[in-house]
Write a structure and sequence with these properties.
Blueprint (H helix, E strand, L loop, with lengths): L1 H32 L5 H11 L3 H7 L7
Helix pairs in contact: 1-2
Length: about 70
């Protein structure tokens, strides 16, 4: 039982860490978008930078087991 609880806790922490990394990288991407002077390029960049973590995860290809 303790082993299952530990594995669950590790899985939750790993997911939380991934979301936190994504959120911090998102702020960097938004800052980089400010370099665009063309409004269309800026908007496309901001749309990509503001994509939710859940949307990002759904679009990622599934890793296949070796």
């Amino acid at each position: 039982m303790l082993r299952i609880l530990c594995l669950l806790l590790i899985a939750l922490l790993a997911g939380c860490t991934g979301r936190q990394l994504y959120d911090s990288a998102q702020a960097t991407r938004q800052a980089e978008c400010r370099l665009f002077t063309d409004p269309i390029q800026w908007q496309n960049c901001m749309d990509a930078a503001n994509r939710s973590y859940d949307s990002y995860r759904m679009e990622m290809p599934k890793k296949e087991a070796p």
